[in-house]
């Protein structure tokens, strides 16, 4: 069995040595510092997902080797990095399965990223971790400087910003952890780039108007700004808002936990009263002929247990809707397709058609989520109302039954 920690130390030393011995001054971004930052990000994401030692080793080795191919050529550097990682691991006695996982993680970083599985997603997200970080500006300047060095031509800021914006719009984080951690800052970085592009374009428009003796009027200036704001507002409204999605996710999770708690409470009541009924029927009823004074207290106890069990069972008894919806329901956006009770009797094509229309319509989608939350709340309200009745009946009923037994025994004693 491989000693993963020991091999990782050797990997770090090996890759660091390669960067030092094959140092290329043009690599202002894809250098040892970037590699170390990717490794740091990989460790952070891997710790969140609590990977096994084996998987932790895979993503770390992939992070160390993912850009080592730049030392040879920018072209197909992922393939070169995968080959170097494979050669190194095989020299340490690694099995083909392990080298294959590492190679796949490295190749998954090729743009556009198409990772398969959690390990590849972690490496891909770590590689572009800086897009959603505070140091994006500095890292982006280094990438531009490197691109200029390798291309042999100057790339002006406007051209570079346009390419970076395309990268932002094509890219998305694959792991839930990075989506929650980095998406907001990534969006902020993207908006800042767009704002700079807009200002640069507007500045050129003013400059052109000045030379053409046709300066932009203040009304036109206001119109452009309003148009930009309206466009940004529309873009923002067309995108699912992260805060709203988080609210729905948290609310739905809370409702589910409350529902589970209600079911557990009902099961406790049912189990407790079942035991009391079993003991009463098997023990007390046999002795009622010899102890007639216990008949009324016993009947009270039996009634209390039965009533409590009935309300507890009602609290957990499922209510299933018809399971169908019409095309009119879809067009009027009335049906909630997120609840199985509304579609389980429908044909698959009808359900797929309804879901596609819902996903294309932001109002329909959020309306369905709202209806789903409301329905969960209604069910929870019913459950807890019935449970409260069951607990009250049991609490006061047990007190009454105990008092009845005490009174009956006292009367007989007198």
From TrEMBL:
GO terms for biological process: defense response to virus. One of its GO terms (cellular component) is plasma membrane. Residues 27-141 form the HD/PDEase domain. Gene3D superfamilies: Hypothetical protein af1432. One of its GO terms (molecular function) is nucleotide binding. The chain crosses the membrane at residues 294-315, 389-413. SUPFAM superfamilies: HD-domain/PDEase-like. It is found in: Cell membrane. Residues 204-223 are annotated as: Disordered. This is HD domain-containing protein. The lineage of its organism: Bacteria, Pseudomonadati, Bacteroidota, Sphingobacteriia, Sphingobacteriales.
